[in-house]
Records
---
Amino acid sequence: MEKLRKESRQWQPIWAGDTGYEKFEVHGHPTHHVVDLGKRLCTCQFWMLTGIPCVHACAAIARVNKWPEDFCHKLLTMESYKATYSHHINPLPGQQLWERSEANRPLAPLVKRKPGQLQTKRRKDADEGGDSYDHSLASIACRKQHEQTRNTPTRPGKLPLRRRSPPPTGSASFNPMEGASEATATRLANFLKFVPTPGFKPPRKK
């Protein structure tokens, strides 16, 4: 009741002008409601369903300087609670000491499989949160990527990399005279014959 009393401060009751000072038009957000303190009714139907005055009724009750607890249903009072549990409760023995019945033991109904694929995903309750991933963000990202690709100027593709040929092995021999004419081969042989080797010292003549 304390929570309803605090929330009722946001509503403004206006007396309808009746002689009993019981009918009010309560203004607030998002709409107005009609409260009848004599019949204990409100157009929001909360008072009628629960037996507890709603926030609109609490605002009207505060206008007439009365307590909301006095307008609750009599079944919600402490006197009714004590009257309900005033009788004694007979004691019962344990389940092992119960008398055996001669009738057949009831069995659980047979489980019938529903048509279609069997669902293995657990069904979530109403108070549980849904999927934390927002699928709308993926569509925005895809749209931005598409616009960026469309506005980007076309560039030539990269040329494929050429692999270098492996160096010749040591066993392969190179002949510089191969493919040369006889005269060219003779001149090259005479030239290489008289070219001194760097750092080579000829032996002394005895």
---
Amino acid sequence: MAIMGGEETATETIDMVPAEKVKPSQFGEFCRRNGINPNLIMLKITLFVMYGATSSLLPYLTIHMQSIGLTVEEIAIIYLALPFTTFLSPPITGFLVDKFGKYKPVVIMSLLLNALFHHSLLFIPQQEIPGIVPSAFVMRHPDTGDIEVWWSPCPSRECPEEPELDLAVSQCVDYCLLQ
């Protein structure tokens, strides 16, 4: 019993030694006051930058896909994948983080897959826009009523209704808009 008493006394002595307190930094104090977990700050910054970059490019994605010649139906099929990835990614990444116990490899893999799939649009071959580009466009000026003929290689303009026109030119002026 004397030995037990000695062990108890030694244990009590160890418990009574005050632990040295470490004064938290200003950032640590700010995080404590506002309920922020400082261990997750880098994750939050990474996700903010990743989603910010993705959402800033998304409006231009349609324009890019149209410029390489994709049809509206093909663009719709590509955009159909967005809701599925939006709803399926959080449970899958949550499962992987819980399984491995670390979020960093999962976030890095998500960033790499995001970059890979967005850059895979560059591998879609550019298609020629069907149709014949007219050599000239004939229009009636809305203010003067004069008939204007424009030569332009731009495929965004539409052809006039009549394929052939007989014109009598009363005034011929050549303007170069590229100067």
---
Amino acid sequence: QALAERLSRQYGRVIAYSVYPFMPDLIHKDWGGGLHTMAANGIVIGCVDNADARRSIAGTLDFGNWWIDAGNGYSSGQVLIGNTHKMLYLEGCFNKDNEEVYALPQPSIQLPSLLAPPTRPVNANQDCAEAVRDEEQSPLINQAMAVLVLEFVHRFLQGKLSWMGAYLDMEAGTLQTVPAEPEIVARMLGVKVDTLLRQSSKER
């Protein structure tokens, strides 16, 4: 809610949010018979921190919706952005002529452990304030993550976002960004770099 309100104030737009468990209807309107329409189109920001919800988001989003996923532990966290899990949409996704990127692997592809079941019991009903109270989260980690998400959104809307991920460690005092570059995506997916490069007009 706090993140949605900040985005709404900053960009003067209506920003929808939900504090309830993720449901596919938040993004798709199912009309039956395999027909559906988009209920949301643009940027979907997930701050869910559990594998089941992320699995639902990953399985629901179609190419066209960018998914920004934010997750954190006690004093560290990561923000990832992507819009597809299909190799078909990643072919030729980098245009070196105008330095534009049309597609990136979904967060769940970039960091598969996001979909892994927890190694210890997790209280699904515990909110961030309760986690801080129970000393399971640093008092400032959520504010820091919200600022990082806002930076992603700001750069994205300005057409200046050059990262596909960022890892914050408040204990170590570090912020490590992952550039959105074809070499990095190719290594991540196990494909040749040329597969990800859009053929220039001069080469056609």
---
Amino acid sequence: MKYRNYGLFIVLLLLLTGCVKGDVNIEFSNEKKANMDVEILFPENFFISYNTSINELKNKLNENGLQDWKSEELKESINGVTYLGLKVIAPESINKSLISFVKIDNNEKNFQVEIDMNAVNELYNTSELKDIDNYSLSNLKTMGLDLDLNITMPGMIKETNLGDIDDNIVKINLLDLLTQDKISSISIISTNEQKNNFPVNSLIIISLLVILYFIIRKSK
């Protein structure tokens, strides 16, 4: 998997501008299906200050080994600041490789995802990123870099050895993860039962029917 040039390129971009937001999203739907995408947002003035564009970033990513990844443009407003960026979606070959991290305990009826830190370090190539122009991963956090790993599991998440569980998603600060040396793997356990969304879906349908009825009555 061609991660290394990608990680190096992203960090070089981060060195140019302080406030950058990014998310690595991994969703394990079941023991046979997983998806990964990466979202990166830059303040709108970044593109003006450095005379670049979203298309140039796309081209750079393609040059650095991500030509097989699909990309979508992003635009968000955060605390009154406009951010522009990209969402890059992993190809099927990458998604299939994620399945190797999944284990199933049929006795306990649990899903378990265990990601070795060696795999994480390969993804970000930390050996090359720890000292670039006297910057370090810790310095990047001080500069305003916000980079998280978000992992979604099938069923309800019971426990994780890292990060926080929020709305059934494990959120891990990647800079904290990459700058520590005590934890050798990410371990997450969820129940082998799918969440029941029927009550929520029913409420949505009922609400839409009420609104539709109201519109029809008003039109008469």
